[in-house]
Every structure is written in structure tokens, then in C-alpha cells.
């Protein structure tokens, strides 16, 4: 069942978080009881966490909080987790067959990690599983094999247009920036410079280098998000607190 929900006011001029905290608490307790957690989001919405299926079911039916009409929807990412298993005995199995057999254990998607070498795509033993749980299981049983599950920490998303992290080129509003020399108005495919410079940190490497301190920082933030089940803003704030 879904544990995390977003409560949104149907009146865009009156965010639900602007209502009295006492009235909000009373409405939520009437719906799900006293055992819940709630956070105010910067959007003006409320993020609520519940712990029982009955609470989840009741919350989805909620239409009014503090005399304000609301919509209640499951959070888009916090109700699922991704983990990795590594098993050589599955190297020849298709993603579809693995998914079919693991659905009863809460798996909703399967993706094998592949690598490219000399223009050849090579299948690996590493498989990314998406679970419909808010917390990752320690292990999963595949046929008669017990497979440990570790958290999947994806690489930071870097825009191929402006080279900044956190968005893709299709939604980019920045300038075309070379990933090699860091200058504007040309791509790395057309770069004639011989000296590398990162446009993110001004270091002597390409923007796509995994040695870049900005890449490492973004990777650490994603690791916090995944391992502690945080939103991106929460993970970024926590990383800032840790790093000073």
C-alpha cells in the first residue's frame, strides 16, 4: 500500500499549508488517527506519511482538510524503491521473464544493466528492480536463489546542452556549452580546443568527468535521497548541512 501522499488545495490562491496547524491536525486525525507524520512542502502542499493500509485507504478518500477542499494523491517517487541484484544464473533470462516471476514479491519493473565496449553492447549480471515498497527489502528469492538486494544509486542527470546537472536538454533554457572546453555556442563534437575545462567547476577536465567535484557532490545527494528515502530538496539540504 502507498505510505506517502501529497495533499493539495483545489483553490490555488489558498494553499493547504496556510491553514491553521490545529485544524489540519484535527482533520488528519479524524481520517487516519494519531499515528502519522506530516511535512509542509515549499509548494504549499502537505506531505503525509502513514503506516497502515487502513490509513492509506482512508486518506485516498479524503476530500476536505481544515474546511478546505483538497485532492490527495500518492507521492510520485517515495512509494517505490529501486534495488540491484547481481546473479550470473540470470544472465540469459529476459527482463520480461524475470518480471513475471518476481511480481508476487512486489517487483513492478526490471532493467538489466548493459555496458558498451568497442561499439558492442554487453549484458551484465546486474539487474535493476523497481519495488512497490517505500523501503527496500534485504533480499529477494529468484526461483531457488536467494539474492541480496542493494540500493540502486543512479548517476546524476547532466544536461547535454548546457552541461548543468538536474535537468535534460529538452527542457534546458541555458546556453549551448561545450562539454570539453567549457565555452559557449558550440558542442563537444565540433570542439577544436586541446585544453579541457569543466564548465561546472572550472577544473582541468571535461564536464562529463566522474572526477569532477560537482559530479561527486550530486552523486552524494542522490545517495542520500535513495538510502534515506528523501525528496531531492531534503537530500540537498541535508548534504549542505553535512558538508558545512
Automatic annotation (TrEMBL):
InterPro entries noted in UniProt: Znf_CCHC (IPR001878), Znf_CCHC_sf (IPR036875)
Domain CCHC-type, residue spans: 158-174, 177-193
MF-aspect GO terms: nucleic acid binding; zinc ion binding
Protein name: Putative adenylate cyclase type 3-like protein
Species the sequence originates in: Hyalomma excavatum
Organism ancestry: Eukaryota, Metazoa, Ecdysozoa, Arthropoda, Chelicerata
